[in-house]
Fold this sequence. Notes:
The chain is mostly helical. It has helices at residues 6-29, 45-69, 77-97, 106-132; strands spanning 136-139, 142-145, 154-157. The relative contact order is 0.18.
Amino acid sequence: MQPINERFILITILAIMGFATLFCLLGIATPGWNGYNVFSYPLVSPAALCVISFLLLIGTVVLGAIILMGVVQNVHLPLLFVGLLIITSIFLLGAFTSANYNAANYAYNLVITSFTFTYLSSIIATYWLFGARQGTLNIGGQTVQSSDPTSPPKLQMS
C-alpha cells in the first residue's frame, strides 16, 4: 500500500485550519453571545480567549504555508507547527468553556466548531510529524533524507 503523500496531508491540514479560522472569525464577529457581541458580553474571558485563538489560528496557517512552500528550511518548524496547533486548541477550548451556554448563544457553537476543526488538524498534524515525515521529506520541491534520526536531515535538490 502506497503511503499518503505528506504534501497532501499538509494541504489537508491547512484547508481544515482555514475552516477553523473562518468559524472562529464568525464566532467573534456575530452577536450570537446571548444577544451580545463577544466584546460586549458580560464575561471578559470569552472575548479575550477568542481573539487570542483567532490570532493563533492565523499564525498557524501562516506557519503551515511557510512549511508547505519551503520558504524557510528548519528542522524544528514542523514541531513548532504541531505545538502551535495544540496550544491553539487549548485556547479555543478555554474560550467556549468560559462562556455560559443557552439556545440563543449560536456564536458559542461556531467557536465549538472551530475548536473541533483545530483539534482534528492537530491530530492529523501529529500523524504528519511522526508518521508521514519519517525517512523522506519532500516539500517545496526539495527532498530531505534522514538516515540517522539523531542528526538533522540533509537537503538534496530533486
